[in-house]
Fold this sequence. Notes:
2 copies of one chain form a homodimer.
Chain A: E1 19-20, H1 23-32, E2 36-42, E3 45-51, E4 54-56, E5 59-64, H2 69-75, E6 79-92, E7 100-111, E8 113-114, H3 118-132, H4 145-149, E9 152-157, E10 160-166, E11 184-192, E12 196-197, H5 209-212
Antiparallel strand pairs in A: 1-10, 2-3, 2-6, 4-5, 5-9, 6-7, 6-11, 7-10, 8-9
Amino acid sequence: xxxxxxxxxxxxxxxxxxxxxxxxxxxxxxxxxxxxxxxxxxxxxxxxxxxxxxxxxxxxxxxxxxxxxxxxxxxxxxxxxxxxxxxxxxxxxxxxxxxxxxxxxxxxxxxxxxxxxxxxxxxxxxxxxxxxxxxxxxxxxxxxxxxxxxxxxxxxxxxxxxxxxxxxxxxxxxxxxxxxxxxxxxxxxxxxxxxxxxxxxxxxxxxxxxxxxxxxxx
Amino acid sequence: xxxxxxxxxxxxxxxxxxxxxxxxxxxxxxxxxxxxxxxxxxxxxxxxxxxxxxxxxxxxxxxxxxxxxxxxxxxxxxxxxxxxxxxxxxxxxxxxxxxxxxxxxxxxxxxxxxxxxxxxxxxxxxxxxxxxxxxxxxxxxxxxxxxxxxxxxxxxxxxxxxxxxxxxxxxxxxxxxxxxxxxxxxxxxxxxxxxxxxxxxxxxxxxxxxxxxxxxxx
Lengths: 218, 218
């Protein structure tokens, strides 16, 4: 697997101690996220759209309808940015100024290409389902030929990427430690509720472990 | 308050029944989100950066360091896109193809301007703290003159914006309802853990209600 080489575009100028170009760190964040935010420019106007995705080795894959203007432009090789952000906590400092958020994020720059090969396309769609709900692709009906044809799959190489991580307690000014105000971190996480069966679910269909045991995050 | 007028750029061509330009819908999503994804283009390359924000009436405010390249370009009037996404659930269909995500998102297009007026700047910073932790600005030390000078505040008018919402059960193909596979929605929400006091917190400082009673979402 190729190393991730820092470029001028992915080097953190502000708070560089929060930045990382290590593949392990980047992959762990991509693997935990559920939704990415895809940025592209059209006639000078940037757009940011939330999308599902998956990591397949050193590529990130996206999918959508072949008629989508966004996906068409990206598949034609327009520059793209894919950002994944995980919220870990609210950082409450003694001063308003030092309030912050604990988070882990990845910014991936590059160009996408359309995945044409049918087997590769199937693998990518399977990866997206597995990314969101591990084990689910063994339960659900796989895509038909027609469905495969009606889906555009894009891949972005994970080469020019960087991670940014803020963790730990607030960093207050020395003199503010005397203030009577509570300070610390309120942890945040994504939690699941009780599964809601489809109104047309056949009575007696058990909730599978992929759903009943679903857990995301650390 | 000005109405939000749909433009060609904010009209949903795909799945238009999921789209909305109603100010109430847009504001509710903006008010619930904790982090926005800010998109801008630099030398043809799009970038998407997660940031804190707040809504102040019909403007969205952002803040950061005056040395930030991103904020400088945006403050100079470069086109920007601000996207806020809330995840409500995983939609598990009987076919891989119809798997989806229940979400609410807002895409805001426009141009930012730097907030120069000191009172307005103070109000914007207060709004950001209040947006993240309601009530917190009464507990924490407000920004000093120096801190105010060291913060750049940007405002984006909420005029060209649209919301997109997916809710409800999966939409399977008619013939797939005979499959034995479980189908339904796994609800997702942001939950809080036990507050972690700052290691230097003065012993006996109680956890305030703003933190102990913190709740986000519906």
